[in-house]
Amino acid sequence: MGETIFSKIIRGELPCHKVYEDELVLAFLDINPLSRGHLLVIPKEEVATVDALSDDSAAAVGRVLPRLSRAVMKATGASAYNILQNNGAAAHQAVFHVHFHIIPKYEDAGLGLEWNPLRLESGEELASSIAELLSDKEPETLARW
After folding, report:
1. Parallel, antiparallel, or unpaired for β 39-43 and 18-21?
2. 97 is a domain residue
3. Do the domain assignments include residue 61?
4. Residue 142 confidence (pLDDT) above 60
5. pLDDT grade, residue 134 (50/70/90)?
6. Is 105 within a domain?
7. pTM
8. Contact, 42 vs 63, CB < 8 A?
9. Strand order in the sheet with 39-43
10. In the predicted model, what is the mean pLDDT of the chain?
11. Candidate list 38, 97, 99, 101, residue with the active-site label
């Protein structure tokens, strides 16, 4: 993975409005927020997509997302929020370092979303295929696909 703006923020070469940091995770205000209180939560492990994250980094992010969400809600007074995470350019990822957005939702600001659902086809077959891939691999091997 190449260097990103988040690499420089993690190393302290670029400033940020930090709200949380531990040995594996950094959270800071987005400089181009969709709404007041919009946070970015990033693992310090420098990988582009969630599937490339180590179990330790994934667990660390998962552990702090609820706490950060509660703090954002209380600090902003927002009544709702979205957690957004994109993987790959086709999925609208702009910075190729895993990051989660916590975006407070207000009546006039926040994440806009258009949901275009499809009909589930071959659900049993697809679920079985995914489950088989998970059960046939040791966790260490699955992490290296």
Report:
1. unpaired
2. yes
3. yes
4. no
5. confident
6. yes
7. 0.82
8. no
9. 18-21, 25-29, 39-43, 100-105, 80-84
10. 86
11. 99
Q: Looking at residue 106, which CATH number applies to its domain?
A: 3.30.428.10
Q: What are phi and psi of 71, to 5 degrees?
A: -65, -45
Residues spanned by the domain of 19: 5-112
Cα–Cα dist 125/73, whole Å: 40
**Is 92 designated active site?**
no
**Position 125 in a domain:** no
Q: Does residue 83 surpass a pLDDT of 70?
A: yes
Q: Read out DSSP for 43-71?
A: ESS--SSGGGS-HHHHHHHHHHHHHHHHH
- Average pLDDT value for residue range 20-33: 94
How many domains does the structure of the chain reveal?
A: 1
Asked if 37 and 104 touch (Cβ cutoff 8 Å), the reply is yes
Which residue has 């350019």 as its token pair? 89
Q: Tokens 């400033």 identify what position?
A: 15
Instruction: Give the up-direction half-sphere exposure of residue 59: CA atoms within 13 A in the CB hemisphere.
Output: 3
Q: Identify the bridge partners of residue 41 per DSSP, sorted by sequence position.
A: 27, 100
Give the Cβ contact number of residue 135 at 10 Å: 8
Residue type, 7: S
Return the beta strands (E) in the chain as ranges: 18-21, 25-29, 39-43, 80-84, 100-105
